[in-house]
Design brief:
Elements (H helix, E strand, L loop, with lengths): L3 H14 L2 H14 L6 H32 L7 H36 L8 H20 L6 H9 L1 H15 L12 H31 L15
């Protein structure tokens, strides 16, 4: 039988020690868990509309402005190229951020092991996070590359795998030590950032949709009353 108190203590500890993104995801999970099974169908419909609003907001805020602005500077994109460039840019930037976080943890472990403080040089990750997306946009805008959609989806979904597998293999071969293993999760950090970004977009879309609906509603105070005399 599971020790409920132990599970609750673990959740409290994770919430206290987690960063802001971790707390947001945990809070959302708690809110969703409060929904009863009887309301499941209505919740699915509501979340479907929530996601559709997010997609519409994404198209109006990102895709359409990019198409308009880039056409004025001599760059040409198909809608698929814009989607792939946006997804690739976001994943690369987040991936480099996660890599930098992992390096900080690794070097902290190295400092503890050898008794002298050493700090990582993270310039490579920050430069790559900027240069790689720019290169992708220029490549798509100036050329006509063949896009393998499923390969892009696979890499975007499993990017942490490409971060950790080389470290794991090299540690097994004895060429280097996987210092941050057990103290930092590349998968968890990456997916928290991605999920939080998607959640923020959907929330902004819902707010935007609500504002538009309010603007469409007639102002009752401006309507003539039944008792008003006709001129």
């Amino acid at each position: 039988m599971l020790d409920l108190n132990k599970e609750i203590d673990e959740l409290k500890k994770s919430f206290k020690e987690g960063n802001a993104l971790t707390r947001v995801v945990m809070a959302m999970g708690f809110i969703l868990s409060l929904s009863s099974l009887a309301e499941l169908s209505s919740k699915i419909v509501a979340w479907k509309g929530f996601i559709l609003n997010g997609l519409g907001f994404y198209r109006s805020i990102f895709v359409e402005p990019v198409t308009y602005l880039t056409s004025n500077v001599g760059l040409s994109y198909t809608e698929l190229e814009i989607h792939v460039a946006i997804v690739s840019s976001i994943c690369i930037a987040i991936g480099m951020r996660v890599q930098a976080m992992g390096q900080k943890v690794a070097f902290r472990k190295i400092s503890e092991k050898y008794g002298s403080e050493v700090k990582p040089n993270l310039t490579f990750y920050w430069v790559l996070a900027i240069v790689a997306p720019i290169g992708i946009w220029l490549w798509y805008g100036l050329g006509d590359p063949t896009i393998h959609t499923w390969w892009v989806i696979f890499v975007s979904m499993f990017l942490p795998l490409f971060m950790t597998v080389p470290k794991f293999i090299l540690s097994k071969l004895g060429d280097c030590e996987f210092f941050e293993r057990g103290s930092f999760s590349y998968f968890k950090s990456y997916y928290i950032y991605i999920s939080s970004l998607l959640l923020i977009i959907c929330i902004l879309a819902a707010v935007n949709s609500g504002l538009k609906d309010n603007q469409k509603m007639p102002n009752k105070s401006m309507q003539p009353t039944a008792n008003a005399s006709a001129d």
